[in-house]
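hi! just following up on the protien thing from before. the input was this:
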Amino acid sequence: MSGFMKILSLAAALGLGGVEAASAAFPGLPCPPKVCVDTHVITCFKFEHRTEFRDVQRTIFKSVPEVVEKEIQEKVPVTVWHEEDRKRIVLVPHTREVVKHKKIVHNEFREEQRQRTVRVPVTQEVERAFKVLVPSYREEQRQQTVIVPEVREEDRQGTVTTLRTVPETIKKQFVSYVPAALPVCDPCRGVVYTCGMVPTVTEVDCTVFRCVPEQHVENFKVRVCVPRPETRVFTVRVACLKEEVRVEKVPVTTYRDQVETYVVKVPVQRVEVQTFKVPVTEMVPEVQLYKVRVPEIKEEIRVRKVQVTVCRKVPEVIIEKVPYTVCVRVPYQVAVPVCCK
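and the predicted 3d structure came back as:
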């Protein structure tokens, strides 16, 4: 089976890429002789199922509505009224007069003189003495010790560091460009020399200044603040209170008894009997006749015409498209490799 697969692969390689492709696919096999391969186109057929439609006549029945009049008998309730005599008991009002007695109280007033004692206010002015605190001020001499700052100069010595500039010569390197012949590779002429700038490093002597610190002693004056106590005398106003006796007149109200006469109205009741007639209403039952209309329902048969819709079936011929399946041969082309002489 594996040998058959190798032969198929070799044939495909010969048909597609020739001998070189076969040698590349199977490096261990010996190289076969060259074969001329040509391609022929063959027409083949295959079957396909297709769906087509054809017209078919069919008869259907359609419902057509029609309006028809029909007589219908129905029972209708009818109300009939008739009169009936009935009795009822009614309360009839009867009025009669009744004699009644009533006591009436009359209020009358009579005047009387009476006496009463009242207290009458009397106001008098009386002198009274009272003490008052009056504020005043007095001056006092007081002393206070105050620290007063005093400034004086002192001579002092200190070490001072100064910087002295000293020249110094050092060497520095500078980069400069010098023209020179440079080789260039040309593919047509080979190595060709062209003019170009080449960087060159040069040493140059430069003078720089360096700061050297030096220390020396200097004399200087300093202002020193020294506190000094000092006694000062100042005058102070001191507040104080003094008592003063003052006299003022004060109104004093007193009460005294006084008898006065006044008139008072005293109520006096007087009873009087009155006679009067009062109408009294009484309800007396009586039998009363009256007529009543009584409804009575009777059934009557009535005939009426009603329009009724009736469906009638009507035949109709229609044409429908019915699908059916057809088997069709479909041609297709295949390229087949053929050995040529």
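Residues 1-26 have pLDDT under 50 and may be disordered.
DSSP finds two helices and two strands in the chain.
cheers
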